UniProtKB/TrEMBL annotation, chain A:
Belongs to the binding-protein-dependent transport system permease family. HisMQ subfamily. The lineage of its organism: Bacteria, Bacillati, Bacillota, Bacilli, Bacillales. Keywords: Amino-acid transport, Cell membrane, Membrane, Transmembrane, Transmembrane helix, Transport. InterPro entries: AA_ABC_transptr_permease_3TM, ArtM/GltK/GlnP/TcyL/YhdX-like, MetI-like, MetI-like_sf. It is found in: Cell membrane. One of its GO terms (biological process) is amino acid transport. Its main location: membrane. PROSITE patterns: ABC_TM1. It is a multi-pass membrane protein. This is Arginine ABC transporter permease.
Automatic annotation (TrEMBL), chain B:
This is Arginine ABC transporter ATP-binding protein. Gene3D superfamilies: P-loop containing nucleotide triphosphate hydrolases. The keyword Transmembrane helix does not apply. Pfam families: ABC_tran. Keywords: ATP-binding, Nucleotide-binding, Transport. GO terms for molecular function: ABC-type amino acid transporter activity; ATP binding; ATP hydrolysis activity. SMART domains: AAA (SM00382). Residues 2-236 form the ABC transporter domain.
């Protein structure tokens, strides 16, 4: 068996640095996607038919085409169409943020609409206006549905982030490829970064479980 | 207090309320009975615009609430509603359930709202449940809290939408007793119910509905002894 993990030892700091590089744009993309997704979900539960239609169209576009296609479109099409030389970092944030916002908006919309219709009627019957009703009565209950699904979305985004290696952004995945072309071995560096991805996802999973437990405690 | 004129309501092609004309006087207790699907609940829900009438007019204290310019939130503050399935706010304890709307909508101070909530809970016999969360209460207790929550807004009119239909049989009485007390205190009430004994005992007037129409409207005594319409006769034969 031809296995030699000692060969990747000099490259370990280089690959570990990739964790931080990946986390950097993943965190920004998650925040960007969450804010935009929340706004889109508000449109989706509103009464503005045209805006609702636009929001649904937006969602269907980002859910209906491959993520890698979206990434390449933004990375190559933006310079070609606008002359602005977009960096891999910015393309990654933009693609993952926009893509994630489509999923987040669906998660929040579904979470809000899953709250028992009677809650809204009870609030309306008491004369409580829309805004305090949403913030103090509907959203706290919707959170129970939203948070677990949101954690799943963040985990997915963390794993899918490896796609940015195709636009030569030096993230964790790309670094494994760089190392393997340096030492002419693929297996060892890939296993190594695979473990790092797994560790990141495990941390997110644990946070998710903790949040879910806290939510259930209030029942 | 309430005047209903030529009220119609359709869901799609199905007409659920057909030409309803009636009124409720101040201090009057009206019970609305009839078979399932006769439009009783929909009628009740048109009185505070939880359902928007398709046509016709509903006056509350001489104000036409079907007029789009009316501030419906103001009207709803004067009308308490109790639902079949309680709809307490599960993430708030009993005290918060009772004080949230008076504080948010009427700007009552916390101390004032709390004092009133304590009085109301004593009235419905649940003083010891102030800090409890809805999930820890029985159905009958939940419904009594829901009644107290509606009363905390100090309404002029109370609507009850089958308040005992979701309860275990042994809990029906505790809820009906609270509603009876309220009726005797002079509150104006409209009660949709399947409890005929209760209707007979507390109602000033019975409205009998079938297939979206008011079929018969009369004093409880003659109604239960000898209803005028065949439809009401056959209904009473089945339920009594």
């Amino acid at each position: 068996m031809n296995l030699d993990f000692s060969q990747i030892v000099p490259y370990i700091p280089f690959m570990l640095e990739g964790v931080w590089v990946t986390l950097q744009f993943v965190i920004i993309a998650i925040i960007f996607g969450f804010i935009l997704g929340s706004l889109i979900s508000l449109v989706k539960i509103s009464r503005f038919t045209l805006l609702k239609w636009l929001a649904d169209f937006y969602t269907s576009i980002f859910r209906g085409t491959p993520l890698i296609l979206q990434l390449l479109l933004i990375y190559y099409a933006v310079p070609q169409l606008t002359g602005y030389d977009i960096s891999p970092f910015l393309s990654a944030i933009l693609t993952f943020g926009l893509n994630s916002s489509a999923y987040v908006s669906e998660i929040i919309r579904a979470g809000i609409q899953a709250v028992d219709k009677g809650q809204r009627e009870a609030a309306e019957a008491l004369g409580i206006p829309y805004r305090p009703m949403m913030i103090k009565i509907i959203l706290p209950q919707a959170m129970k549905n939203i948070l677990p699904a949101l954690m799943n979305e963040f985990i997915t985004l963390t794993k899918e982030s490896a796609l940015v290696s195709v636009i030569s952004y030096l993230d964790l995945m790309r670094r494994a490829q760089v190392v393997s072309s340096d030492i002419y071995r693929s297996f060892e560096p890939l296993i190594f970064v695979g473990l790092l991805y797994y560790a990141m996802v495990m941390v997110l999973t644990l946070i998710g479980k903790y949040v879910e437990r806290r939510m259930r405690a209030s029942d | 207090m309430i005047n209903v004129e030529k009220l119609h309501k359709s869901f799609g092609d199905t007409e659920v309320l057909h030409d309803i004309n009636t009124s409720i006087e101040r201090g009057e207790v009206v019970t609305i009975i009839g078979p399932s699907g006769s439009g009783k609940s929909t009628f009740l829900r048109c009185l505070n615009l939880l359902e928007q009438p398709t046509s016709g007019r509903v006056f509350v204290n001489d104000e036409d609430i079907t007029n789009p310019n009316v501030n419906i939130l103001n009207i709803r503050q004067q009308i308490g509603m109790v639902f079949q399935h309680f709809h307490l706010f599960p993430h708030m304890n009993v005290l918060e359930n009772l004080t949230y709307a008076p504080m948010t909508v009427k700007g009552e101070s916390k101390a004032e709202a709390k004092r009133k909530a304590e009085q109301l809970l004593a009235k419905v016999g649940l003083s010891e449940k102030l800090e409890a969360f809805p999930n820890s209460l029985s159905g009958g207790q939940k419904q009594r809290v829901a009644i107290a929550r509606a009363l905390a807004m100090e309404p002029n009119l109370m609507l009850f939408d089958e308040p005992t239909s979701a309860l275990d049989p042994e809990m029906v009485k505790e809820v009906l007793d609270v509603i009876k007390d309220l009726a005797h205190s002079g509150m104006t009430m409209a009660v949709v119910t399947h409890e005929m004994g209760f209707a007979k005992e507390v109602a000033d007037r019975i409205i009998f509905m079938d297939e979206g129409r008011i079929v018969e409207e009369s004093d409880p005594k003659p109604f239960f002894e000898k209803p005028n319409t065949e439809r009401a006769q056959s209904f009473l034969e089945k339920v009594l």
